[in-house]
């Protein structure tokens, strides 16, 4: 079962390389998305047996994340054929294959229960996503890809060093040599403390780089700014969530070792710093895709902050993982449509989007209200849960700072977004001839519908999956 | 634990300083190649006796880090026709000093980490940290894409030294994965260097500065 989950997208990727038709190839993406979702639903409802000596396990943490990733991918996959049809000059063979391969390696990342295997999965996801950022083949996308690869590879290298430290800490204490997470959690209290602490710091910096937490976020605005909106969604919702899962796995080990407090303080500090940095750069941001990148930095900060606060906020944070990913799909895909319609992503060249592409502009606006935590959308519920958790656990200053940053970001982001959607298209704005079409709007509406649903009522199976994951993480020694 | 380990590590530390101090790209690439060969020898020396697994790791490290990647880098250097690193963000002398401070700190920090009896008193952990730091300095302060790739290689070398402590405990797969991914990573970076060359007719990453906040 688990092997099928990982291999299906990889086989589709091979198929994408083999299919000769530029027009038919993009339809492999929705086909793979549906197949993957069907397999995930089967795995979540039945029992997916652990595989390969416990190296592949779908555990309580992996279950909601895998479900979320599959849904997010399906939204992107449904959008892809319509988008690629608007870019007839671009060959999409490598693009389609890499998108599919990234889904396969992300799935592996979530179900991998072996330190080394998980690391390899993250590394291959990074490599698979590099050609996606380079899709536009111009000087700016080269620069973005170079920064993405260089910074990302350093982060991955530091994560490997952290993994070595953790393994050595276990070895030093005379524990049986194992890198399977179940064993590491079981033996966690005996792992040598100095090594455990050093390894957690390195792993947090390493995987935090992939997640795009400040101050290791510098690749993000460039990569998200230059990549197509579809790729931005996959990175901001998929890859970063995968890196977050990796951090959670090590947080879980720290927690089981009785060092949860040490880890929590680091997570709170990085979370607040990320929100602060995002707030500073989001105010007066003139490139609306870069603005979305800083929004991603902010929300990654919120995710780790929620885990750092603990208690109820852990559930809030996991719920926010889902909400943020779906909101990012709405924002990046609609921003991509606006970008195509105006041929620019700078606010001085783009205004009056409501007149030129009313559907996309309305969705972009709704996505803005959703991501900044306005009711009745999902992020409002998850952020409220995190605030309640903060005040409930006595983190008053943290809770107050959290609310303050949310406010600043709402104002900063609002100015840019309203500038884009309101008014009239600027004089002499080049006419690209690209308008809203059903194929590029319907997937966004689907994502927005789910965000709205999660804000009004969380379906019982989703709620149960998230609560199981939260209680799984909160295990004390 | 073999007696040759510490002398070999000392040579690695010296090579770090040579890398920090040189302005010539050829010397930097050769330095990283020499380090690759040293790491292969180290993998043998740490265990003292030759088993199939250590032999494989040693041969793999020597070939990839000592031969294959330096060859690719030399080729890339010839294609872009650049010989020297010009105006690094931090000069060559200051970066050597920084490296010295870093090595000292690595020695101090490594003492706070308790070692297993078979590694007690060895330089493995401090040398690993110092090499990682050296790679980091090269990566952050040099402007040429090729030197940055060399910096990344040195960083990986430092991690490899730490991995030597775990050679017996770590499953084989991880070691292979490290080398494979390293190769792939450099390969991809190499392709990009070619593209940068075509677009900017130089491999100076300072040209990569169109994307920033105003």
Please provide a written account of the structure.
The complex is a heterodimer of chains A (477) and B (214). Chain A is mostly helical. In chain A, helix 10 runs antiparallel to helix 11. Chain A has one domain. Chain A has helices at 2-18, 28-45, 62-85, 93-111, 115-133, 139-172, 181-187, 193-211, 219-226, 229-256, 260-282, 288-309, 312-342, 353-356, 358-371, 378-392, 396-421, 438-456, 460-473. Chain B has one domain. Chain B is 73% helix and 0% strand. Chain B is globular, with a radius of gyration of 18 Å. In chain B, 47% of the residues are buried.
Structure summary:
The complex is a heterodimer of chains A (477) and B (214). Chain A is an all-alpha fold. Chain A has 19 helices and no strands.
Summarize the SSE layout with pairings.
The complex is a heterodimer of chains A (477) and B (214).
Chain A: H1 2-18, H2 28-45, H3 62-85, H4 93-111, H5 115-133, H6 139-172, H7 181-187, H8 193-211, H9 219-226, H10 229-256, H11 260-282, H12 288-309, H13 312-342, H14 353-356, H15 358-371, H16 378-392, H17 396-421, H18 438-456, H19 460-473
Chain B: H1 5-21, H2 25-47, H3 52-80, H4 92-111, H5 124-141, H6 145-164, H7 172-200
Helix pairs in contact in B: 1-2, 1-4, 1-5, 2-3, 2-6, 3-7, 4-5, 5-6, 6-7
